[in-house]
Design brief:
single chain, 345 residues, alpha/beta, TIM Barrel, eight-stranded parallel β-sheet, globular, binds 6-chloro-9H-purine, binds zinc ion
């Protein structure tokens, strides 16, 4: 790496950034998968870390999800969920993340007999320790698996609601993830209406593999405030204008999109085009243990491939702060801190 590339990385690391699209189960590194398998006496279908890692070659979203759910199978105890989440926070700190909104999938765990209390307790314990010891704030986005039924989403919501008060400082939002094609937003219209009545903030994955119409339907039928991915919106000019006019945040995940073949290569990614057209896009890592990089790597590899300048990087970081669910006064304070980061030459 050249000196100037190095200093652009350091500049970007110093920018206060929010990460708004990360699945905590997607931060589970092969090393920790093996450690937890041993701790819980689970036999993995891979002889070692290297052969598990070698299997991370995906053709599409589903081929990734199959491995991601299998990897999550080593999470049994509260300590396991804590250890996974704490490891993410240490990486977040190293990358200059000051706030994160973490998605988690209780259904992946309750289906295996792990209680939803265990899931919440482990993740929330790490989030509270991160606030106290690392100065990183966070919110939790409980996400429904869209390949399951809406009735199962309602059952998950009902199981989680008794925990709401205990985790009121963290659990403020609802998300929708997993297999997009064939599981359109309208399938979850009633449960999103209920979550809205309950006062949750709403996000959903849309327009990753699915069409632009799923982005429109997530906004209009589910009434989400933020779209996870949304890169396929480009196919619909009227939708693009709507996203610009309403400054709808798109949490774009460049390395994820390449690994899952949403774009052929980073050079072909439409992030710069979306940014230059005035869309409110930010960069996120999605499932960094599987996609080859955490947040700062996503910023830097994208900057390199698309010739992003320091001012693009500042805008991306500012968008992440403004698109967060942080109260306005915190956003303003971080935006001020962002302005105070010295210019990169
Ligand atoms: C996911 Cl990349 C992606 N898309 C949809 N659902 C997911 N769950 C975890 N990663
Ligand atoms: Zn995602």
């Amino acid at each position: 790496m050249s000196d100037s590339a190095l200093s652009l990385r350091e500049f970007t690391r110093q920018l206060p950034k929010a990460e708004l699209h990360v699945h905590i189960e997607g931060t589970l590194e092969p090393e920790l998968i093996f450690k937890l398998a041993q701790r819980n006496q689970i036999t993995l279908p891979y002889p070692d870390q290297a052969s598990l890692h070698a299997a991370y070659q995906f053709d599409n979203l589903q081929s990734f999800l199959d491995l991601y759910y299998a990897g999550a199978g080593v999470l049994i105890t509260e300590q396991d969920f804590f250890d996974m989440t704490w490891a993410y926070f240490l990486r977040a700190k190293a990358d200059g993340i000051i706030h994160t909104e973490i998605m988690f999938d209780p259904q992946t765990h309750t289906a295996r007999g792990v209680s939803i209390e265990t899931v919440f307790a482990g993740i929330a314990g790490a989030a509270r320790q991160a606030k106290a010891e690392l100065g990183i704030s966070s919110y939790l986005i409980m996400s429904f698996l869209r390949h399951l039924s809406e009735a199962e989403a309602f059952a998950t919501l009902d199981a989680a609601l008794p925990l709401r008060e205990r985790y009121a400082d963290l659990w403020i939002a609802i998300g929708l993830d997993s297999s997009e094609l064939g599981n359109p937003p309208e399938k979850f219209q009633a449960v999103y209406a209920r979550c809205r009545e309950l006062g949750f903030r709403l996000v959903a994955h849309a327009g990753e593999e699915g069409p632009a119409s799923y982005v429109r339907d997530a906004l209009q039928l589910l009434k989400v405030e933020r779209i996870d991915h949304g890169v396929r919106s480009e196919d619909d000019p009227a939708l693009m204008q709507y996203l610009i006019d309403h400054s709808i945040p798109l949490t774009v995940c460049p390395l994820s999109n390449i690994k899952l073949k949403v774009f052929d290569s980073l050079d072909d990614h439409n992030l710069k085009n979306l940014l230059d057209r005035g869309l409110n896009v930010c960069i996120n890592s999605d499932d960094p243990a599987y996609f080859g990089g955490y947040l700062l790597d996503n910023y830097m590899q994208t900057a390199q491939a698309l010739n992003l300048t320091a001012s693009h990087l500042r805008i991306l970081a500012a968008n992440s702060l403004r698109s967060s669910f942080l109260p306005e006064q915190y956003q303003q304070a971080w935006l001020q801190a962002l302005d105070n980061v010295p210019a990169h030459d």
